[in-house]
Amino acid sequence: MKLSQKVWQSSVYKRLIIAFIIATIPIYILAGILYSWASNLLRQDIMDSAKTQSENYLRELNDTISRFNSLQYDMLNDNYLNKLVNTYDILESYRRIELIHFLRSKLVSMRNSSELIVDTRLYLPGINVEISAVDGYGHLKDEDVPVEKLHDPYNVISYNNKLLIVAYPLESEFDTIPNIIIEMELRPSEIQRGFQAALKKDYSGALILGLGTNAENMYIINDEKLEEPIRNHYGRSLPSKQATGRQPPAKLDQTYIFTHSSLMDSSLYVDHYLYKPTMFKTISEYYKWFWLFFCMTILMVALYLYYINKIINKPMVKLVRAFKRIEEGNLELNIRHDKEDEFGYIYERFNEMLINLKISIDEVYNQRIHLQNAELKQLQSQINPHFLYNCLFSIIRLIKMEKDDEAVNFTNQLAKYFQFITRNSRDMVPLENEVAHARNYVMLQLARFSDRVSVEFEELPASLKPYSVPRLIIQPLVENAFVHGLENVLEGGILRVTFVDVPEHERFVIVVEDNGENSEEGLERLSALVMDEQNKQITQEITGILNVHKRLRYKYGPESGIKVGRSELGGVKIELIINPKAVTADVSNANRG
Fold it and tell me: How far apart are alpha carbons 231 and 217 in whole angstroms?
């Protein structure tokens, strides 16, 4: 029954077109949603950028303070300074003045090394001397070195509205005040200018720089609404060691994004308040559409999938299940479709295919099976009389030589040989048994050839032992090597049997090669005959090889079979290629047999 033109232009085809058009609408909607998603990424990028910039600024500022500390440390260890402190009382006046001028010049150099430094001062309580890069030399006043200045050496502190870095020998012992104190006064306006230039953005609501344990915070506030809550929140100073856990004022959470940046082993930190309306002004208006677009897309996709499942997936699943039942060997099927559409046509053709398949199996497949079995039995019945005579003569010779044990062993091997080739209960045997039979055949042949032929018979890899293969596929190749390759070799003959597992190509190869005197013409002729299976001019000597080639192709398909070439030993190399896809299904049956 053929479908009319109207059926071909059925509702399934039209519905697929309509469904596709409807399905594309959410894609465009999804594009808008992706824009919102990109906006969220932009938010995170801005926050990460602000945090990274803050950390970079802190590192730069920390490096600057570390450099100041190094200058202070170098000054503390200056030989002239120590000489002045330790020998002040015994030095002549001109020498004292000389040392003081030298030390002041070093202080001036320290002050001129950075715009951040207002002044550098050297306090020598032991000799009651004060040296300043700006004010010069003078007598030390008691209020210049109070104990409050000495609580946090080498860090920025706040004292009398000044930012100071005080340093003194940490290893020295003193009761109240060290003998040498170096003080750097920093310029807050310069720090704030650099801080503002490095971090201030259009969307920065406020920037807070924490300088040290007792140092004043530096504020940069753009939004007037932030002025009071920020100052109330931070006050005039904040213990910086608690800064890592600092949280922004609760009432600012909805309007500002807070980021905190600090350095490990440093009292410096930066709190950054990002003003959301300015930061996300161009993208915030799209955010309200996010959930609406998301819900619409989910709904449309769900409806589309339901529709596709009903008109395509279910009929297709029904057809796939029918094919699987055919693979399992069940040909008694008849599937139906209620609608007169493409699937109705496919189902009808499927049912007709089953009928034709049954006929084909009876007329073609069964005949091929019988042909293969006949070829196998023919091969098994082809017992070479010369081989049998040679074996019997070998037994007689061993008996005459009174080598009874060897004769018995040889007879057992010969019995196993005939037992294997005459057992025809099944075609498939474990590869391990087939290899053992071929090895047994080689041992029988060595009774004649042992003085002029050596055998390299590789052990079967463990990965190949589970497979089963057609019976008698290796022995004909070995027999061909002995009869047509090594028969006339007087000495130094080599027969090699190897196994190659190629799992990435889902196959394995059995290689039989020799170093016999085979002409190039004979090799090409043998290869051509194997390639041309239908050639009628086939000689008796390659009937067994061609039989093996055909059986492998019947069993495993055109990728399997025999390949003939020149061996690196000099003789013929025959590769027996097997694609084991179909082998594994027969393993259990072969092992039970």
Answer: 10
Enter the tokens of residue 549: 């080639």
Pick from 284, 283, 280, 278: nearest CA to 222: 278
- The pLDDT score that the predictor gives to residue 375 is 58
DSSP E strand stretches across 84-222:
117-124, 129-132, 136-139, 156-159, 162-167, 181-186, 204-210, 218-221
In angstroms, what CA-CA distances link 9 with 21, 224, 343? 18, 71, 13
Handedness of CA 436, 442, 445, 450 (dihedral sign): negative
470 three-class SS:
strand
The Cα–Cα gap between 593 and 589 comes to: 6
Q: Is 5 helix (H, G, I), strand (E, B) or coil?
A: helix
Place of tokens 């052990």: 459
Beta strand 218-221 with 162-167 is: unpaired
Q: 93-112 and 79-86 are packed helices; what angle lies between their axes, rounded to 10 degrees?
A: 140
Task: Show Cβ contacts of residue 135 under 8 Å, excluding neighbours closer than 6 positions.
Answer: 119
Question: For residues 4 and 540, what is the distance between their CA atoms, to the nearest angstrom?
Answer: 59
Sequence-distant (≥ 6) Cβ neighbours of residue 217 within 8 angstroms: 208, 209, 210, 211, 234, 236, 237, 238
Alpha-carbon torsion (549, 552, 555, 557), positive or negative: negative
**Helix axes 520-531 and 543-556, enclosed angle (nearest 10):** 40
CB 372 within 8 A of CB 426: no
d(CA 181, CA 147): 12
Task: For residue 91, give the 3-state DSSP assignment.
Answer: coil
Is the C-alpha dihedral spanning 19, 24, 27, 32 positive or negative?
A: negative
169 three-class SS = coil
How many Cβ atoms sit within 10 Å of the Cβ of residue 462? 9
Ranges of residues in the chain with a pLDDT under 50 are 1-10, 13, 236-245, 536-540, 583-593
State how far the alpha carbon of 348 is from the alpha carbons of 140, 321, 359, 451, 570, in Å.
113, 16, 17, 71, 60
Looking at residue 396, its pLDDT comes to 82
Per the CB < 8 A criterion, the answer to whether 157 and 215 are in contact is yes
In whole angstroms, give the CA distance from residue 6 to residue 227: 78
CA distance 528 to 524: 6
**CA-to-CA distance for 394 and 388, rounded, in angstroms?**
10
Question: Are 229 and 252 in contact, with CB atoms under 8 Å apart?
Answer: yes
Interior/surface letters 151-187, b for 16+ CB within 10 angstroms, e for the rest: ebbebbbbeeebbbbbbbbeeeeeeebbbbbbbbbbb
* pLDDT at 279 (0 to 100): 73
User: Tell me: the pLDDT tens digits for 343-376?
Assistant: 777 878 888 888 887 787 777 766 666 666 655 5
Q: What is the pLDDT of residue 172?
A: 58
Tokens (6 digits) for 166: 């005080």
Phi-psi region of 553 (alpha: psi -120 to 50; beta: other; left: phi over 0): alpha
